[in-house]
Sequence to fold (275 residues):
Amino acid sequence: MSRSLRTLGACLLGALVVAWAVFPLYYALVTSVTPSGRLFDVGWWPAGWTAASYAGVFREQPFALNILNSVVVATGVVGVSLLLGLTSAYALSRIEFRGRGMLLGVVLGVSMFPQVAVLAGMFELIRWLGLYNSRSGLGLSYLILTLPFTVWLLTTFMRDVPRELEEAAIMDGATPWTIVTRIFVPLMAPALVSTGLLAFVAAWNEFLFALTLTLTEDTRTVPVAVALMSGASAHELPWGRIMAASVVVSVPIVLLVLALQRRIVAGLTAGAIRG
Fold:
């Protein structure tokens, strides 16, 4: 009897967690298709259906360009983060040198600083480089958010790869770059996918740097574009368009997670398994 109660309790707790996580997206979806005159009617299902909010999102501001900016910046950040993270992880996990542990600790410590603490310095750096109000400037600033945990995670995963594989490749005359690309990359594919997805989500959702380092609508990313919609139209409530925009920008992340969920789980659990 006690076992049945524990099972029932676990099921109820799981259902509560799922409902808590899914409800905001469900509410945004329902609100986005509700006519503007019925936005504040209480109900679990909209009384009418309309796509006016979705049309308004793309008609009243360059939201498609904002999405493109986010895709370009986030994809570029993921590529650079994985490249630098993979090569740095090889040096930190396989090459013996003085201060290696301290360097890895510094890399992790960088991620502990709040964004607002480095915002002024980042702004001056981006402006000095002539990258203010550009995708390149955003991508460069996002690396301070994605590189530390990318290096740390990939270093942890690379330490679990048997050294015998690397030693055999060295005996065959393989260079360090060949070892990284031909041995570590295939073996660490799940880890690379999960780490890359975390970096993509961080870059996709970043708001503070995007708000500070962009000025015009054609360079803004989707978080800033959605935040500034509240002042886009003073003569009507913008909640329908805000929710429609939220649904649109959530779809890529949801699809990525669904498509890569097996590799994500394998990557997140790989570090816990030692042969």
User: Anything to note?
Assistant: Residues 63-94 form the longest helix (32 residues).
